[in-house]
Amino acid sequence: MTSSPICGIAPELLSRVYLECAQEESAFWNLKWMRLMSVCRYFREIGVAHSELWSYISMPMRLPTRDAYESYKTRIERAKGWPLSIRLLFNTELAYFL
Fold first, then answer.
1. CB neighbours (10 Å) of residue 54?
2. 25, 28, 45, 95: most buried by Cβ count inside 10 Å?
3. Dist. CA 61–CA 90, nearest whole Å
4. What percentage of the chain's residues is helix, strand, coil (to nearest 5)?
5. What's residue 1's pLDDT?
6. Is the pLDDT of residue 6 over 70?
């Protein structure tokens, strides 16, 4: 089985592609850039290793579910010390108390 030529993209260039995708439509926050990780194993490896992409975390102002907690934990681990940008989301009812 031969690999596709697209999988021959230099890791630096592919990292830049990830960043460009993440910068569009605030995708850093909504994780739309993760779709690139499904192209092939190589794309996934580069995406997982890209610390900056994982450093953007959007959290609702409530106790996280177990799945959400695991997701935050994984993202913090993959950020590998990159400064975190955390966005807290709250509904208008909660805004009254702030």
1. 21
2. 28
3. 5
4. 65, 10, 25
5. 46
6. yes
Q: How many angstroms separate the most distant Cα atoms in the chain?
A: 60
Contact in structure between 52 and 76 (CB atoms under 8 Å):
no
**Whole-number Å distance between alpha carbons of 18 and 54:** 11
* No. of helices (H) and no. of strands (E), the chain: 6, 2
In 19-30, which positions are buried (b, 16+ CB within 10 angstroms) versus exposed (e)? eebbeeeebbee
* pLDDT tens digits for range 13-43: 999 999 998 987 678 888 888 999 999 999 9
Q: Answer whether 27's CB lies under 8 Å from 20's CB.
A: no
Distance CA 81, CA 30 (A): 21
